[in-house]
Design goal:
Helix content is 21%, strand content 27%. The protein is α/β, with parallel strands linked by helices and 414 residues long. Helix 5 (186-195) links the parallel strand 12 and strand 13. The longest helix is centred in the C-terminal third of the chain and has 12 residues, at 328-339. It starts with 6 loop residues before the first strand and ends in a 7-residue tail after the last strand. The structure holds zinc ion.
Length: 414
């Protein structure tokens, strides 16, 4: 198929405008196009028809927080950064992810110097999912809520935004930053990030609700892995969790929040509370680590010996969980089961909402006319059949229904 061909995906249901409808998808030059224009203006029919065999077509999943996978850890000082990025970008196609933000946790200076400049934004295709830019999680966080971040590299905004520039060097590859809003000078720093088009997320924090609201007024628009690494909900000061129901957040400013719905890191009841309180802001993230996609058994990941057993990653020889190894497709399914939400809500939490959180919803996260033709085919029970980027099949699940192509002779209508 050449790119300028007109493709018509038939025999499918599609997710568009918050509902699942029986409709074809038309694609040209990697974009979803309006067929009416084809019929009436250009008077042409499709070059190729693709029989989707009754699949449900959803926009591809967008992952805003993934630390690595398939043995690769983005926060390690590794030799071939580009190859590591490629391995993860390719591997997650099998999980329905068509674009993502590789994530770097609090790291020593040489990681920011050597690795960050090489994790470049790039368009997706058969070689892997689109790289939207890096999520730098830390080092400007609260050491009291450090989680697995190494404390010796945690920093303050001592010199304001200059501390940021000194730490990360160039911000060219940065798309999301997680900061603790209670740090001194945080409001002015948040404004400077937002001016540069970087999404500011709040997390690894002891912030009160008031500190969270102040950060939102200065432009913060996301919360990093809600419930994890922040103050637990308290009725007199609900902390960052309270932002989900704050009346200090203007109506036109949605605060989005990432949540790990792997069945381990967030209790199903907590998922339900988050979903019922603020469904529009809910964004599913895996927060997966390098053991994602590895076989059961022992693995050496950087300095850490990790044992993967029964779908969980443990520090070897202990019962201590060392991070998620859930796939995005599993998280979507688990979220739907845990909250009894609709299929549309479950899918939008992994597609439309993360796209809106990054302000890229004109091109990603939906099947609107003009959007990138990045989508996934799902069967019953939301099992993944195949993954498509720019209208091209980039992953076909083994043993699952395959789409059939029919070339048509291009002809003028009328
Ligand atoms: Zn974290």
């Amino acid at each position: 198929m050449t790119q300028s061909q007109l493709l018509q995906f038939v025999n499918c249901n599609i997710l568009r405008n918050h509902e699942i409808i029986r409709e074809d998808i038309w694609v040209r030059d990697g974009k979803i196009v309006n067929p009416e224009n084809m019929f009436f203006d250009e008077k042409i029919s499709a070059d190729v028809q693709i029989d989707c065999k009754g699949a449900l077509i959803s926009p591809g999943f967008i992952e805003l927080q993934i630390n690595g996978g398939f043995g690769v850890d983005f926060s390690c000082d590794f030799e071939d950064v580009e190859e590591g990025l490629r391995v993860v970008a390719k591997g997650i196609l099998a999980h329905g992810v068509t674009s993502f933000c590789p994530t770097i946790v609090t790291s020593p200076p040489h990681v920011y110097d050597k690795v960050l400049p090489r994790l470049k934004k790039q368009a997706g295709g058969p070689k892997g999912a689109t790289v939207l830019g890096v999520h730098v999680e830390g080092p400007f966080i609260n050491p009291l809520k450090k989680g697995a971040h190494p404390e010796q590299f945690i920093k303050t905004f001592e010199k304001g935004f200059d501390s940021v520039l000194e730490t990360y060097g160039s911000l060219d590859n940065v798309r999301i930053v997680t900061v603790a809003p209670e740090l001194e000078k945080a409001p002015e720093v948040i404004e400077k990030f937002v001016e540069r088009g970087i999404t500011v997320s709040l997390g690894h924090s002891m912030a009160s609700l008031g500190e969270g609201e102040a950060a939102v007024k200065h432009g913060a628009s996301f919360i990093t892995h809600l419930f994890n690494a922040m103050l637990p909900f308290h009725h007199r000061d609900p902390g960052l969790v309270g932002l989900l129901a704050s009346d200090a957040v203007p109506d036109d400013h949605v605060v989005y929040f990432g949540i790990i719905s792997d069945g381990i890191h967030t209790h199903p009841a907590a998922l339900r509370i988050a979903h019922r309180t603020h469904p529009k802001g809910l964004v599913l993230v895996t927060d997966a680590i390098s053991a994602l996609g590895l076989e059961e058994g022992m693995h050496q990941l950087g300095q850490l010996s990790v044992e993967v057993k029964a779908g969980c990653a443990y520090i070897a020889g202990t019962d201590t969980l060392c991070g998620s190894i859930a796939t995005m497709s599993e998280c979507v399914k688990f979220f739907k089961e845990a909250t009894s939400c609709s299929i549309v809500e479950a899918l939008e939490a992994a597609t439309l909402h993360p796209a809106k959180a990054l302000g890229i919803d004109q091109t990603k996260g939906s099947l609107h006319f003009g959007a990138d033709a990045d989508f996934i085919f799902l069967g019953k029970d939301m099992d993944l059949w195949s993954t498509w980027i720019s209208g091209e099949c980039v992953y076909q699940a083994e043993g699952k229904t395959e789409a059939a192509y029919f070339s048509k002779v291009k002809r003028k209508l009328f």
